[in-house]
Every structure is written in C-alpha cells, then in structure tokens.
Amino acid sequence: DAKTTQPTSMDCAEGRAANLPCNHSTISGNEYVYWYRQIHSQGPQYIIHGLKNNETNEMASLIITEDRKSSTLILPHATLRDTAVYYCIVRSSSNTGKLIFGQGTTLQVKP
Amino acid sequence: KAGVTQTPRYLIKTRGQQVTLSCSPISGHRSVSWYQQTPGQGLQFLFEYFSETQRNKGNFPGRFSGRQFSNSRSEMNVSTLELGDSALYLCASSFFGTSNNEQFFGPGTRLTVL
Fold it and tell me: Using only C-alpha atoms, what is the Rg of chain B?
C-alpha cells in the first residue's frame, strides 16, 4: 500500500471550509484513497473514499488530482464537532481488510 | 441499522492473565478486522477474518489470536498479558473487506493491564 504524507496539524475557523491535504505520490492505479477521522478515544469514523474521480457525500468532498499523487478532503462548513484527527489512507486490493493508519492531521476548529 | 458493537467496553486485567474481546459486525457484513491503538504505535492492524477464516494478518506475536463464527461475529484473544498490551482494541466490519468496501468501526474495548 502506498505511503501517505499529511501535515501534523491544521487550524480552521468555525463556519469556514477546512481543506486537508494528503500526498500519496507512489499510489498505484488500483489503489483507493480513503479518509477517516477519529475524535478522542472513539472508533475511527469513515468519511469518504475514491479512486480517480472527485467524490462528494453528506459529510465532505474528496478531490483527487489527475495524476492521483495527491488529494484534498474538504469539509465545507467546519464546526467545533469536526475537531479530530483526520487520516488519509491508500488501500490496495491485495491487502484485504487492512487499513494502514499514519499519524494523521489534527484539525482544530476554532470559534 | 445497528452499528458495530464491541463488548466489554472496559476491562482491567493483570499480567499473565488472558482476555477475550467480542465484536458484532453490522448485519450483512462478512469481513471483520481488528486493530490495536496505543499512544506510542498508533493504530495497527492485527488481523482480518472473512467467512470464518483468517485472511490477513499483521505483525503481532502469536499471543494475539482470533476467530470468527458462522454469524460473522468475531472474538479476539490475548494470552499471557503484558503491560504493553494496554490499549484500545477496535474492530471494524465491511461487506467483503475488499479495497472498495468501506470499513465501519466499533467504539472499541479499552484494556488496561496492571
């Protein structure tokens, strides 16, 4: 599974969009990009995933660059409850049932 | 639709004892994965079960084992507990465990080894 690189921490003002970047320059063609978040001591929460195209759901949008070497998770209107550690994960088809978590980005949403 | 449930939520054991943790996946999900989370090592994959068979395994000693039942419920067992086994143990379920299937996590079991 390709390695991901994320900033250690980010701040965002409440009500503004939070844009969380992720670099995955060694991603292979059949590997998916996943985003999870974890609020202190709770189980990780699935946010969104994608392969090539941009994706949107009720929680967030995922923008994947055309060369697929990086992606951005967008929380359109951040609230205080979005304060969490956000994990970008690249997942290959050969590693069934396995997510490889890095250190993630700690997002602090401030009033 | 009920989420992933884990029991017990909290557990205190002493060194040398063994422990069994339980995970009930989302209805219809056949893949169950287990993870260990510690402050020092972060979230690490233990193993995955699908159709009662261990299909994938992380780099943990043989003291960590698991099984899955025909109704997809899973248990993990840790024998001869060590202080370093104190952690949050998380299970996650998905339909097939493949790369296009999102995993949904339970709340975890907090194990403290004294």
Answer: 13
A41 contacts chain B (CB < 8 A): yes
Q: A34 CB near a chain B CB, below 8 Å?
A: yes
> Is residue B67 over pLDDT 90?
yes
Q: Is B5 on the interface with A (CB under 8 A)?
A: no
User: For chain B, percent helix, then strand, then coil, each to nearest 5?
Assistant: 5, 55, 45
Question: At B83, is the secondary structure helix, strand, or coil?
Answer: helix
Given A31, A43, A99, which is nearest B106 (Cβ)? A43
Enumerate residue ranges in chain A where pLDDT < 70: 1
Digit-coded pLDDT (tens) for B96-106 = 988 889 999 99
Rounded to an integer, what distance in angstroms lies between the CA atom of residue B49 and that of residue B77? 14
- Residue B34 CA, chain-centre distance (Å), reads 3
